[in-house]
TrEMBL record:
Gene3D superfamilies: YycH protein, domain 3-like. One of its GO terms (cellular component) is membrane. Pfam families: YycI. It comes from Vagococcus lutrae. Residues 40-259 form the Regulatory protein YycH-like domain. The chain crosses the membrane at residues 7-26. Keywords: Membrane, Transmembrane, Transmembrane helix. The keyword Transmembrane helix applies. This is Two-component system regulatory protein YycI.
Length: 276
């Protein structure tokens, strides 16, 4: 294949990606929930409490900045992973209890001991690129670590480390399995942009009737989530994730595009059955 043909293919790919991003942006703008110019939503916390909705804190109006990002899924077949590991489609490392030296863990110090395992284990690829996620973890049996970019984590199945534990006969815990996905070559696709605030995201859900009466807003977080893949690269957008528990104790996760203030999840909300 000659150089001009390669150059042409790269140009077409670049233009296609930018056209898609532009379309996504303007579509999001069209779908954006327009916040009414009324002071009655300035204090959304009071409105929620009137409808018996429990909130974790007053919602922040601080503006943050973020990017459209692209990244490559790490191919573990091309990395030196432990010989005992099992690879799922080259992108996920799974290592089971049988191949891991027994790690006996005290329930009292489980977080610290899992942290020590993650920090020192040679079986974990690029272990220094992960940080602990309290939002996704379910101690004492599941601890989740994620990658991040300029302080905003990736909450996506493409870039997480999950350490799973189980009970032992002596009342302690032991490591049963860890699984790992990873991304690399993370780079911005556009310049940094202002994001909607946590307060804006809650108002959007409220106006769209996505917060039922009597529900509990368990937590909120700003994170990057994958929106699509093109030619082997994943594209991520800043997203507000809102965990809402209804009267029946079902936990749903709402996602708001932090650029366009539009709800990402369509139709029914996602009901959390497992950790991402």
């Amino acid at each position: 294949m000659d150089f001009k043909r390669i150059e042409f293919i790269f140009l077409i790919t670049f233009l296609s990606l930018n056209l898609f991003l532009a379309f996504s942006y303007f579509q999001g703008q069209a779908e954006t929930t327009q916040l009414p110019e009324s002071s009655y939503l300035d204090n959304i916390e009071s409105r929620l409490k009137e409808e018996k909705i429990t909130i974790p804190h007053d919602f922040s109006t601080q503006e943050k900045e973020g990017y459209y990002l692209s990244a490559l899924p790490t191919n573990f077949e091309e990395r030196e992973v432990t010989k005992n590991a099992r690879l799922n489609d080259a992108m996920t490392v799974v290592e089971d209890l049988e191949s891991i030296p027994i790690v006996d863990i005290s329930k009292k110090n489980v977080r610290q001991e899992v942290e020590s395992f993650v920090t020192n284990s040679e079986d974990i690829v690029e272990r220094e690129s992960y940080t602990y996620s309290s939002a996704l973890s379910e101690p004492p049996y599941a601890f989740v670590y994620t990658q991040s970019f300029e302080g905003i984590p990736f909450y996506d199945g493409s870039s997480k480390l999950v350490v799973t534990l189980e009970d032992t006969a002596n009342g302690r815990l032991t490591l049963s399995q860890f699984s790992q996905t990873h991304i690399e070559d993370v780079e911005p696709l556009r310049e940094k942009q202002i994001l909607i605030t946590e307060h804006d995201a809650i108002v959007t859900l409220y106006l769209a009737s996505r917060i039922p009466n009597g529900a509990t807003i368990k937590q909120t977080t700003l994170a990057y989530t994958k929106i699509f893949s093109v030619r082997g690269k994943d594209v991520y957008v800043p997203t507000w994730l809102i965990w809402i528990e209804n009267k029946d104790k079902e936990l749903q996760i709402e996602k708001i595009n932090a650029f366009s203030n539009s709800i990402i999840s369509s139709g029914m909300s996602e009901v959390r059955k497992e950790t991402f």
